[in-house]
Write a structure and sequence with these properties.
The protein has 544 residues and is of the alpha/beta class. The chain contains 19 helices and twelve strands. The strands form two sheets. It has an eight-stranded parallel beta sheet with strand order 9-6-3-2-1-12-11-10. The protein has a four-stranded antiparallel beta sheet with strand order 5-4-7-8, with no helix packed on it. Helix 5 (147-159) packs across helix 8 (188-214).
Length: 544
Amino acid sequence: MKKRCSGILMPVSSLPGGYGIGSMGQAARDFVDFLVLAGQSVWQILPVGPTSYGDSPYQSCSAFAGNPYFIDLDQLAADGLLKPEDYAKENWGTNPNYCDYALLYQKRYKVLRKAYAAFLQQRPVPGYDTPYSDDWYRFTFLSDAWLPDYCLYMAIKEENKMCDWQTWPAPLRLRDPKALEEFRTGHADELGFWAFVQYEFAKQWQALKAYANSKGIKIMGDIPIYVAADSADAWAGRELFEMDSEGHPRRVAGCPPDYFAEDGQLWGNPLYDWAYHKRTNYAWWVRRVRHALSIYDILRIDHFRGFDTYWAIPAGDENARGGKWEQGPGMDLFRALRTALGDLPIVAEDLGEIFDSVRALLAESGFPGMKVLQFSLNGTDSLDLPHNYPAHCVAYPGTHDNNTLRGWLENETTPAQRKQAKAYFALTEQEGEITGLLRGVLASPAELAIVTMADWLEKGSEARMNTPGNPAGNWQWRVAAKDLPPALARKIHEMSARYFRAEPLPEAEPKKEKAPAPQPKAKAADAKEEKTTAPAKKAVKSAK
């Protein structure tokens, strides 16, 4: 990110489309084209892993798997795995601007199972012992480090009514080899279904990424630092975490009490056994980051400060008050990652209350941090005001965890803050408050500026993606296709180019004036008359 540029934050789930949630189909390619027309260089998305209870992409049941909801049904139909009548007439929700996750869970997997049945019919090749195509083989081979455990986890979970793995029968919960082998033998078709889903996700995602890259658009992905307690990673890799012999976490993740939460935040994620990771030269983290960089061009890591110091809360506590700070792996981890993977195109989420040691780790890592305009209006020369942004950072008006700019101005700012915003950003009614605030972010020294799509659309709080601490009503907003016209793309391009984040729009060619119509030739009689009258005028002049 040495060159100034800009991008748009738009979750895949928020893309337009007719089947309940955004997908990796034509609407995603249309959005890539919109980004190109808007002069953008980066498409930032949220984590693309499968969502679980609460629908949060930051609480996924796998650190490696893709979200089955994002598989485009029209593409499956084009591949001969579905018929339009299998899905087009289904009720995918009454409001096209919001995801109904409960409805998706009820209906999406039924449709995907129809596609899997067709896949099984297509797969056999007469005369061959193994009927799988080369790309299927390639996918399963490259995914062998995580795919078998994920498929087994999902199949057992479904067998147990989707309950948390810690409630499973002991032989399965504790991964007794005999019990697992018996389950595999009796549920081969179910294991195949979950592998098929990931195969289709990977195939469609790589095609979409290739399309974006061919248009000059880089995809910035996102991974949370922690994995969910109820995940294939925690079940299959208990040695990675602070867990007892029964698989129960000893301590869990969260944040200490602060101004915003007097009891702190109790996230409940199992904490890493960093001593184990160090002994194994961070092999699991190498696999995780290698996988992430195979699907993203730029990787944002959520809660970067946890690599320096993290808040450890005794398991079973009702809130985060009883936690304490512990030392994370620091640069030791990132040196191991660089040794294994080379250059790391990582963006560090370094928001919130940050110790000096976190700042030192960020500086030593060389990763760009983040700056958010909504944190700036405190009446002082805040480091979060755009003129103070370092060049080596990513600037945002707000993130997925913030309100939209309009919602923030209307509902979360004081009269004093609005007064400061008006003065600092020189806001005018003619330009518009939102446009003026976005101008401030784009004009900042930050090499990369990212604006949420909802802010370009000047949406209110109804388009907010997430309210931290609120367990319901998040991750639902979607954009309508009609809200992404070429005129908006040109506006974004013009503003980005004004602050040297995009090439200027080509000037419209001036309209050529029409040549005057040729005059008809004079008639012979007129010409004769002109000859006879001219001398007469001359004679009159000489007589004077």
